[in-house]
Amino acid sequence: GVLYGSPTVENMGKPTIIEITAYNRRTFETARHNLIINIMSAEDLLLPYQAEFFIKNMNVEEMLASEVLGDFLGAVKNVWQPERLNAINITSALDRGGRVPLPINDMKEGVYVMVGADVTFSSCLREVENPQNQLRCSQEMEPIITCDKKFRTQFHIDWCKISLVDKTQQISTYQEVIRGEGILPDGGEYKPPSKNLKSRDYYSDFLITLAVPSAVALVLFLILAYIMCCRREGVEKRNMQTPDIQLVHHSAIQKSTKELREMAKNREIAWPLSTLPVFHPVTGEIVPPI
């Protein structure tokens, strides 16, 4: 499941309890857990300096893992050196108009990660703004960034797509939240099923499912056994209903077949005189038969 969205002013300052129910698809074992989220005011955790990175060798699912995101924030913190650093937004490149990668060479779709800090940008992050690197980006060449090696071991950053935003230089204007397509209407409090669910006995259903096909198979087996065993006419009844001339003809065929098989076994006997050669094959003289 995915939980997304932003809390409203009504949820600020009080804990929000989210009840999560999960079950095992194989054993159907059910577990329930309460997730408590404490919503605080954003004014207490101001992060006016925000930088958005485009990571080419990651998908959004991989980036959401706590270990991978922690490694990325550690690399950014090593370059930026802020006191407080948090991830603000993670967006797939497909949501920004990117193309679906080809399924070759383990290509990734890419992900945008926005982080915020409480100190101004470091000199390394501002290197992408110098004219030389801007010229290289316009020529579709990689810019020269001194701190790229600190990311290269795990993350391939596209430095031409980095975005640096300074919130202190922007005039903040309060906009009233208008409920529209972006905010769903309040549907009331969800009431999950009771924890004391009655266990259902599937033994009778199992017996019915197993007994009905077995009974049908047994009936078919008995019918087939009756047809094959009890309905046979026998050899005597067959001979009584068969004309005598047909039986004699069939018996003669069997005797002839038997005689031919016996003659085929005795092929090594002397050849008849009529089949022996009369002339010598080399001299042509008359050879008397043996």
Automatic annotation (TrEMBL):
Signal peptide positions are none
Which domain of life does the UniProt lineage start with?
Answer: Eukaryota
List residues traversing the bilayer.
206-229
> InterPro entries, from UniProt?
Sarcoglycan_alpha/epsilon, Sarcoglycan_C, Sarcoglycan_N
Q: Does the keyword DNA-binding apply?
A: no
Would you tell me the Gene Ontology cellular component terms?
Answer: sarcoglycan complex
Q: Does the record bear Ligase in its keywords? A: no
Q: Which parts of the sequence belong to the Sarcoglycan alpha/epsilon N-terminal domain?
A: 1-41
Domain Sarcoglycan alpha/epsilon second, chain residue ranges per copy: 47-166
**Which Pfam families does this chain map to?**
Sarcoglycan_2, Sarcoglycan_2_C
Keywords for this entry?
Answer: Membrane, Transmembrane, Transmembrane helix
Q: What is this protein called?
A: Epsilon-sarcoglycan
The organism of origin for this protein? Micrurus carvalhoi
